[in-house]
Specification:
530 residues; alpha/beta; TIM Barrel
């Protein structure tokens, strides 16, 4: 296969996704990770559209990228405006980049209905803009916006737009499926038709409105493109852009195209999660290659086969992309799942050990009651260690009370009062909170602070409640999932009860005890029975 260059537009197109807003330093940090990954081109933003993007480019001009080229984005000149006086083009020059991607209209519908100009004037806009920048020693990539719709509507004119850009000095032409609605077979057919007409590099830029952006990008490469544009995790406007994460893995592992080195490929999961964190977006567990569930196995038949030969249910070795497989434990997993998880926890447990069957039966019973241990690894580890008598409690609850008070014209106040027995000492304390769970959490950790100072290093990062039987109304059981984290780790715990406070308490206790257990604190008290 031919060589393929990777073009990332997370910092521009990706930032247009709903719920995403990058600061200048956010963009600098992401650019650094993309550079380390070996992305060939990093599109930093549109300096002519806002001061923040211009500040980013000026800041980046003082830094040195090791593997990537920084690219600025902009549009062709406005209709009937000389290129040398167009504010957008002048801003591109001020950005101090060596490469600029210009987008221009190729669809006659947009030219007449949106730009309100003539087809000939649009051709002049492309020619003048590309020529103006190349005359200033800037390499220009031309993004043919809405190309596939344009080609369908007016083949001759859309090709003239590409030809004009190429003749004016553009060193790459990128075909954009801007509305994201073109089918994969159509992408392939069009590229094969026009490839002989393009003498420069040919790229593809797909949106995901039909759920085909990754497939269309791969098909475009197979049809002859040598540049792929996309965003990390598929972030972008509407349904997002083509996700560069699976694109990179597919190019490298399925098509044998060395778009990144083997060592860089192993960083794929790390980069995916890093950009998710900076973007303040939840990482999709089911994301191909890099999601937490990408190589997770739950069904007993699957687990049994994977333990004998991972190829039976894994299309690649997870380590190639920096991920790992996971064996989920549930009522579907069977004894093999319990045995494998016990091995991972360094617990001496054989598959044929009677205790394995006992733990499986316990899991099946609890999941029937509403527990969901694949979403709460910390609670599952505690359950295993309790069942095997490998774990002692750090404290005992004597009782708690939660008081919620609302007075007219005043906000709701919440106080939790807790009585514990810790190391044979009786502890009685109280704390306020924003709500009952927050108050309980504050009171519990306040009561334990003198005994276990390490708890000051942890905090709750997420709290989820699900009603398990909506038909039961207010008498229904609820499942509470709590995510906690400290300086080094993140873990999840679970509680189930008809009472949301009781379910929250179960999850809170597991969260605190897991923190103490993983820190290797001395165990006190008696064995907790499950």
């Amino acid at each position: 296969m031919h060589k393929v260059k990777l073009y990332d537009t997370t910092l521009r197109d990706g930032s247009q996704g709903e719920g995403i807003s990058y600061s200048v330093m956010d963009k600098v940090h992401i650019a650094g990770e993309l550079d380390l990954l070996g992305i060939h081109y990093i599109e930093g933003g549109w300096p002519g559209s806002n001061p923040k993007d211009m500040e980013f480019f000026l800041k980046m001009s003082q830094l040195r990228l090791k593997n990537s080229e920084l690219v600025a984005f902009g549009s062709t000149r406005k209709a009937h405006t000389p290129a040398e006086k167009d504010p957008n083009l002048l801003a591109l020059l001020k950005s101090k980049v060596k490469i600029v991607t210009l987008f221009g209209k190729t669809w006659d519908l947009h030219i007449t209905e949106v730009l309100k100009t003539t087809l000939e004037e649009n051709l002049a806009m492309i020619k003048d803009s590309v020529g103006f920048l190349t005359a200033g020693d800037i390499e220009v990539f031309y993004d043919a916006e809405h190309f596939f719709d344009a080609y369908q509507a007016n083949k001759e004119y859309s090709l003239r737009c590409l030809a004009v850009a190429q003749e004016a000095g553009a060193q790459a032409i990128c075909l954009c499926d801007t509305n994201g609605g073109t089918l994969t077979s159509r992408i392939s057919a069009v590229i094969k038709e026009i490839r002989p007409e393009i003498k420069v590099s040919l790229g593809i830029h797909c949106h995901n409105d039909a759920g085909l952006a990754v497939a269309n990008s791969i098909a475009a490469v197979e049809a002859g493109t040598d540049m792929v544009q996309g965003t990390i995790n598929g972030y972008g406007e509407r349904c997002g852009n083509a996700d560069l994460i699976p694109i990179i893995a597919n190019l490298k592992l399925k098509l044998g195209i060395d778009c990144v080195t083997d060592d860089k490929l192993k960083e794929l999961t790390k980069v995916s999660h890093f950009v998710s964190e900076i973007s303040n977006m939840k990482q999709r567990d089911e994301q191909p290659y890099t999601g937490a569930s990408a190589f997770a196995h739950k069904a007993g038949v699957h687990i049994n086969a994977v333990m004998k030969n991972p190829k039976t249910y894994e299309h690649i070795e997870p380590a190639l992309v920096g991920n790992k497989n996971r064996i989920l434990v549930s009522e579907l997993a069977g004894k093999t799942g319990v045995f494998v998880r016990a091995q991972g926890l360094d617990l001496n447990l054989d598959k044929n050990d009677p205790r394995t069957k006992k733990i499986l039966e316990l899991i099946q019973r609890l999941e029937h009651e509403g527990y969901h241990f694949e979403a709460a690894d910390a609670s599952f580890e505690l359950l295993m260690k309790r069942a095997l008598k490998k774990y002692n409690k750090f404290f005992d609850l004597t009782g708690f009370r939660v008081v919620i008070e609302k007075e007219s014209n005043r906000k709701v106040t919440t106080e939790a009062i807790i009585r514990l027995k810790v190391k044979n000492a009786k502890v009685h304390t109280a704390a306020d909170g924003d709500g009952p769970v927050n108050a309980l959490d504050n009171a519990l950790r306040k009561a334990l602070a003198d005994f276990y100072p390490a708890l000051s290093k942890m905090h709750l990062s997420d709290f989820k409640v699900r009603v398990l039987d909506e038909k039961a109304g207010t008498a229904a059981k609820v499942r509470v999932l709590i995510e906690s984290q400290d300086e080094d780790d993140t873990w999840s715990t679970i509680g189930v009860s008809e009472n949301i406070i009781e379910a929250s308490w179960q999850a809170l206790v597991d969260s605190v005890e897991y923190k103490l257990l993983k820190d290797g604190k001395q165990l006190y008290g008696h064995t907790r029975e499950t």
